[in-house]
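Q: I'm writing up a methods section and want to include an example of the input and output format. Could you take the sequence below and give the corresponding predicted structure tokens, formatted cleanly so I can copy it straight into the document?
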Amino acid sequence: MGRKMNLKKILAYIMVFFAFVMIAYIVLNGPAEAETNTVSSTVVTDKSVPTANAPSVVVSNNDVCKSAAAASVQTQILGVATGVTISDENCERLKLSRSLFAMGMKVAAVSTLCGDPRVFDSMWMAGTPCPFMGFIGDDAKASWKKNEELIPLNSEIGKIIAKENIEAARKKAKEDREKEAEIKAAREKAAKEAREKARADKKKARKEARSKKGSLNGEKVKVWATPLGILGFLLLL
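A: Here is the clean output for your methods example:
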């Protein structure tokens, strides 16, 4: 609907500009043509082109927020006339808000006005942010900050919120990177400690194995030493 009204406005402005250009062209070239008509004997004066009259566009209903625009252009061979109506969105917003307020829907009336960035900014600056999906007060303020894309265009507060959200996102990303780096360092430290512990355990196991093996060899020597000693003693006798 907004695009359609914008097209009507653009068309009206183009027609008015074109009308001014053609009128200026006719005024500037009028004397020369009049002089030529006076001198020439071949001018036909009873076959002139009818004048193009701009249509009368009347908007009589007070509840309709529309304005009229009409324009006409006349040349020696062609005449063009047009008329359009242009909707006033600000007028519509005010009437809708008043109707809702009259029916006791005060929050809805304020929400309707909050579609205007000027109202949104003034409500925010007054410490009473516009309602958001049934939330009011601080809850509404927090919700607007989380949904900045829903703030009316050209809102100065919206620009500030967008900037703050970008900075907060960058800060959070930096903190996440630092936290990830800390986790990675902790994992590497834990892995290094585990490797060192594994090497220490392996070394300890080898040492215990060598000690156990030496003990077994000593016991074997002791077992064989006793009979040999007795045998040697007997031989000496």
